Each structure stands twice: as C-alpha cells, then as structure tokens.
Amino acid sequence: MLWILIFIAFVLILVSVLLLLVTQSRTEVKPATALVYNNMWTGETEVVLPGTEFIVPGIHRILEKEVSLKNEAENPSNVNLITGDGIELEVDYIMRRLQVGYLDMPSVPDIKLLKGAIVKAATKINYANRRDLVLTRVVAHLQEALEHKTLNDLFPEADLTNGKSGKVDKEVMEEMEKEINIKLGNDIVTTEWGFWVQIDLEDYNLPAVIRKAREQHSSAEIAGEALKRKAAAAGVKNPVWFIIADAITSIFGDRKEKGGKK
Questions:
Q1: What is the DSSP secondary-structure string of 11-70?
Q2: CA–CA distance from 113 to each of 45, 101, 194 (Å)?
Q3: CB 169, CB 108: distance < 8 Å
Q4: How confident is the model over 41-61, as a mean pLDDT?
Q5: Is residue 158 pLDDT above 60, yes or no?
Q6: CATH of domain 2-68
Q7: pTM metric for this prediction
Q8: What distance in Å separates the CA atoms of residue 61 and residue 194, rounded to the nearest whole number?
Q9: In this structure, are residues 183 and 137 in contact, taking their beta carbons and an 8 Å threshold?
C-alpha cells in the first residue's frame, strides 16, 4: 500500500513538472515576425514562423525573439556625395525595399530560403542596428556610382560659370539606379546578412557651387539693369560712361566722408 502511495505521489509530481514546463515554454510568435533560437543539445539554429511553439528553458536559447518579415521601406535623409569631377551633390533617394529575405523573393516565398535569410539577419549582425548597417552599404554604392559620373553626365546643360544647371538626365539616373540595385543584390547585405534591398533614386539637388554662381550671376544682372536705368534717366546714351562716372563719384564720395570724420 505504501509503495502505491509513493508511486501515485511520484506521478503527480511528474505531471505537475511537465505541466509547468509546457506552460512556461509555450511561446506565441506574432504575425509577420519570426523567432530564432539555438538548440543547445544539437547546436542547430532554428526558426519559428508565426504561430505557437514550445521553447524549453535550458535546451532552447532564444537568439532573436522578433525578426520582422515586413518590408521596412522608408525615405532616409538626403546624403551629400561627390561626382567623378569633384562636385558635391545632395542625393535624394528612397529605400523602396528593406526586407528580410532573398533576391527577387516572390509574395509566396520558398520557406527554406526564407528561414535561411532569417537566421542570417539574426546571427550575422546586430539585428537591432539593421537599418543603420544597411543604409551604410547603400550610401557606399551610391558614392561608387557617382564617382563614375561627371556633373555634366547628370546635368548635361550645367555650367559652373553662370550657375546654369538645366534638367537632370533621367536616363542616366535610371541606369545608375538599376546598377546600384544589381550590386546590392550581390552585396553582403543580401548574401551574408539576409536582406533584400532595393532603392529608388529620386533627384539630385543643385550643388553649392552652382547655387553660388547662380546667385552671383543674378546679382550682377540686377546691378547692371539698375545702372542702365540710371543712365537712361540721366540722358546718357552710352551706359559705359555712366558706369565709370558712377564709380568715380562713389570713390570721391567715400574719401569726402572719411575726411569729414577726421
């Protein structure tokens, strides 16, 4: 009779322990996310897609509790880069795709390839810093592409002497965009980190040298028009002589003012 009681007590304790383990190890993985854990008995890294999974303490070690499977597209801040002829441009671009996955991943992905990409994203980099790490690679490729272009490749009518910029060559921009996206597909961001990344080039803002030249050219034109109007009002047919006379008057006026202060 005693042995029966001991056996029943043992069974009850065992059932309680098992229920406790099941309760504590039951893990819900949110929609559009994945959980990555390491099986410490086998050494293998496993991925849990949305749903319920049992993570056993002491056996399963969670590496990343929530890896987003969404496209984390964004519009980053513009970046200042240098063309092949040394002109600084402000480049406006959009991160059209920043998503854990593989190159040209369809809407219904290959689960094996997707899980492989998820493991890379969770183990090869600090996943929390993924945005900054990916943007660094994108900007590096943008700079590399610009180094092979001159200002006049991008703005065919640009003239630094008078501040003329003209229109952006859209075909060149589209070629650069395509080239950058191809390189990103072969970059460590995809092959080692497990992200599918694509960008859209939006625009180049006018370089500072052109803006400055445009302002100077505009100021000179305004000053010239003002002198022409003065010459016409004074009845001077040739504005050149009026400009000379105006300059002499200004010089003597400055000297007289200085003499008066003494």
A1: HHHHHHHHHHHHHHHEEEEPTTEEEEEEETTT--EEEE-SEEEE--TTTEEEEEEEEE-S
A2: 14, 8, 10
A3: no
A4: 87
A5: yes
A6: 2.30.30
A7: 0.71
A8: 21
A9: no
Furthest CA-CA distance within the chain: 133
Cα–Cα distance, 205 to 91 (Å, whole number): 6
Separation of alpha carbons 10 and 16, rounded Å: 10
- Determine the average pLDDT of the residues in 193-222: 70
Distance from C-alpha of 250 to C-alpha of 256, rounded to nearest angstrom: 10
Lowest mean pLDDT among 1-5, 41-45, 192-196, 252-256: 252-256
Torsion sign across C-alpha atoms 249, 255, 258, 262: negative
> Over the stretch 84-111, which tens digit does the pLDDT of each residue have?
998 888 999 999 999 999 999 999 999 9
Query: Nearest Cα to 78, choosing from 133, 20, 139, 130?
Result: 139
Phi, psi angles (nearest 5°) of residue 148:
-95, 10
Does residue 19 register a pLDDT over 50? no
Map tokens 């060559």 to a residue: 169
pLDDT given for residue 243 in this prediction: 52
List strand residue ranges (DSSP E) for 131-258, in order.
195-205
Positions of E strands within the chain: 26-29, 33-39, 45-48, 51-54, 60-68, 79-82, 88-100, 195-205
- pLDDT at position 257, please? 47
CATH code for residues 79-206: 3.30.479.30
136 in Cβ contact with 76 (< 8 Å): no
CA 162 to CA 66: how far, in whole Å?
55
